[in-house]
Amino acid sequence: LQRLYLSKCRIKTIHKDALRGLTNLVEIDLSHNYLESIPTASFINCPSLMKLTLSSNPIGSVKKLAFNHLSYLNTLELNSCLIADMEEGAFLGKQILIYLIMLHSF
Q1: pLDDT of res. 81
Q2: Mean pLDDT of 40-48
Q3: Residues whose CB falls within 8 Å of the CB of residue 83, separated by 6 or more in sequence, listed in order
Q4: How far, in Å, CA of 89 to CA of 70, rounded?
Q5: For residue 12, what pLDDT band results from cuts at 50, 70 and 90?
Q6: Number of neighbouring beta carbons within 10 Å of residue 19
Q7: What is the DSSP string of 58-69?
Q8: In this predicted model, what pLDDT tens digit does every residue of 71-86 receive, in sequence order?
Q9: pLDDT value at 105 more than 80
Q10: Residues 6+ apart with CB under 8 A from 93
Q11: Are 67 and 90 in contact (CB under 8 A)?
């Protein structure tokens, strides 16, 4: 499995082992759900992830090193997330990040 689309599925949380075994996953779309935080621990099982879409979730803050373990992440979409706080170092170590899309997020 390389692409997983879970948009508009009313997801509130993602268990840390929910994506276990999906080592070939390169794209996941979790937009238009009810995630209040970035499920960082869940993505540890997805070392090949290149595109992450979290748009239109009520994510209030982005923690330091939130995406650090996603070595190949080059596209991150956080549109319309109502982010109130972004910790310094949230994108630390993301030299490969090409697209950071955050329209209407603050």
Answers
A1: 93
A2: 90
A3: 59, 60, 61, 62, 102, 105, 106
A4: 14
A5: very high
A6: 21
A7: ---EE-TTTTTT
A8: 899 999 999 998 999 8
A9: no
A10: 65, 68
A11: yes
Q: Is the dihedral of CA 91, 36, 100, 105 positive or negative?
A: negative
pTM: 0.92
Q: In what order do the strands lie in the sheet with 3-5?
A: 3-5, 27-29, 51-53, 75-77, 99-101
User: What's the rounded Cα separation, in Å, for the pair 31 and 34?
Assistant: 9
* CA neighbours closer than 13 Å in the CB half-sphere of residue 44: 9
Q: Are strands 99-101 and 75-77 parallel, antiparallel or unpaired?
A: parallel
By residue count, the chain amounts to: 106
Per the listing, tokens 């268990």 go with: 15
Look up tokens 């630390």; give the residue: 92
